[in-house]
Amino acid sequence: MSSIKEVARLAGVSVGTVSNVLNRPDMVAPETRERVQAAITRLGYVRNGSARQLRAGRSRTIAVVALDLANPFFIDVLRGVESAAQRDRLTVMVFNSSKDAGREERLIEELAEQRPLGVLITPVNDRGQRERLEQLVSRGIPVVVFDNSSRFSHGCAVAVDDVLGGRLAGRHLLERGHRHIAYAGGPFSVRQVEDRHDGLAAVLGERERLTVIRLPDLNVATGRTAGREIAELSPGARPTAVFCGNDLVALGVLQELTQRGLRVPDDVAILGYDDIDFAAAAAVPLSSIRQPREQIGDTATQMLLEESGRVPGHQHRRVIFQPALVERTSTAAQAPAAI
Amino acid sequence: MSSIKEVARLAGVSVGTVSNVLNRPDMVAPETRERVQAAITRLGYVRNGSARQLRAGRSRTIAVVALDLANPFFIDVLRGVESAAQRDRLTVMVFNSSKDAGREERLIEELAEQRPLGVLITPVNDRGQRERLEQLVSRGIPVVVFDNSSRFSHGCAVAVDDVLGGRLAGRHLLERGHRHIAYAGGPFSVRQVEDRHDGLAAVLGERERLTVIRLPDLNVATGRTAGREIAELSPGARPTAVFCGNDLVALGVLQELTQRGLRVPDDVAILGYDDIDFAAAAAVPLSSIRQPREQIGDTATQMLLEESGRVPGHQHRRVIFQPALVERTSTAAQAPAAI
DNA sequence: GCGGGGGGATGAATCGTTTCAGCGGGTCCG
DNA sequence: CGGACCCGCTGAAACGATTCATCCCCCCGC
Prior knowledge:
Low-confidence stretches of chain A: none
Strand content of chain A: 15-25%
Largest interface: A-B, 50 and 50 residues
Structural class of chain A: alpha/beta
Number of strands of chain A: 12
Radius of gyration of chain A: 26 Å
Oligomer: homodimer
Largest sheet of chain A: 6 strands, parallel
Number of helices of chain A: 13
Helix content of chain A: 40-55%
């Protein structure tokens, strides 16, 4: 593996000149430039990133620590990140914390050593890593938190108003005539899960009933257990609509209900959250609360760049997006008459 | 951002000693060690990864270039990679080529500069990047190709026998009585797409009919167009079963058929490929050809480590896994009688 | 009392770039 | 004809860690 020195020797110039050919070619005489280029291709020379970064003090890479890559929501956010990064020719590295706090901690540690341009992260939990993130910031690595409404005051944040999302869900289901609604989600230590519940609860009146099905996690498997629980209730005790913590849960609920002979939406309506592509593609297309996924990623990345650019008057900001209801088949019927 | 020098000064020792505290603590007197540790925490010192790597010549990071993170198949493979990497305390960085050859090329270039321990990649196309990958190898960065049966002879490869997968699919559908089968997939320049087709075609006899629906890509949206195409055929001209290039396509087909009033599996059976989690979670649970996803990632990573360890007698290997049929509802009925 | 040895620290060399002051030589202008 | 400039290139100093030869001291054994 050849270094710049060998290129210089082969081309009969100094290393400084080779570096100039690489970084400001117009400062080098054409004839010299060509000679150097020839040496480069001849040796198959590739710059050493570590040495460059060591010298430069900072890389052109932004790191994304995703909470759960198995959730397509994050993939879509990632798309936004990548398109924003591409504009500035930055590289995006993705890491997956898999909702594992220990793993996340190790990753942050690792990132601190790597000194990326910035870090985009959805922390596993509000409180746990705050300190660690603040350490990153205090070491000059800007951090932007996304999809999380926690009070991380040492950097910018992008979030979606989950309470509003819950309210939209509640209003929609009330309009459809539902008077007994279930909320399937968890763990409640996750801010979003709690906020969505609170929004729903806030729009329900005295006369309406709310059943909370607590889940240990938001995925298809836990969604199925929720579906089972609902299906096994006697028709009178059964909610006529289920608002799910996210679309994965909704898909699980949908499958379980269908399999047990309940019709969606006629017997039970289902409303998801996130509006991932699989929601529309479900056999009973899912109504869902849509988050502007790509825009979240795009905006978060832009903020990160602002911070890292050390814009003089940069003020940490918190951008809150509004969710929106997407109506599809899974909530398309009026609630069945109470028994 | 403090460096090792400042730690040394604060602790009243030389930089060499600080380095020893970090890397071989038992070579340092306990009293000194504590003094250094105190200085480290006091300054919030973190090692500079670039400097370390520059000195060491190689990092402890393996890079994965995934073909399409939006396909849960790759997420599952990734899980296998991560678990294998964790055993050796390696960090996994994920990059997404999004099936874009240009993007992939840029990523490989970038990786060459970064000098990771190794690269795990599913190339966008067989021929295109072969040269580039060989360059990586010739620069001492081992490459393992996964989920691709191309002839990349400069490194190890992990793949699945896609022809066999196609045969399994065909045999299963024949057993169910289907005599007119459609294959929905594309582009055929992708080896897997072609192999799965060929396997299917190989088990069909003279009397059976095969309709090929060519798609520009394998995702839910193209699956829907395939579904539309099938639904719009007159019942007589309509295949009674569809074998799909992957599960995303199958989900699209399923939704479109259902929405247009065709029953699955009674009117049309659907068979997917990959057996991603969403396949089982579809409202009509999808039969699918299962690939050992996590094992692919795990094995590929192990091979990478072997190569990078420069095991003296290391021979490049090619591991081929066998796919298996997973029967679910979407192929559970006998084929309808021919009209 | 002296040589040997070993534990513990030092300091310099090194990794591969980038950057910048400086140098030689040619051109232009007064 | 001499100074001012510009062009193109050189050489060396950083960047921050690791590593290894070296040195210092103290203790032990003869």
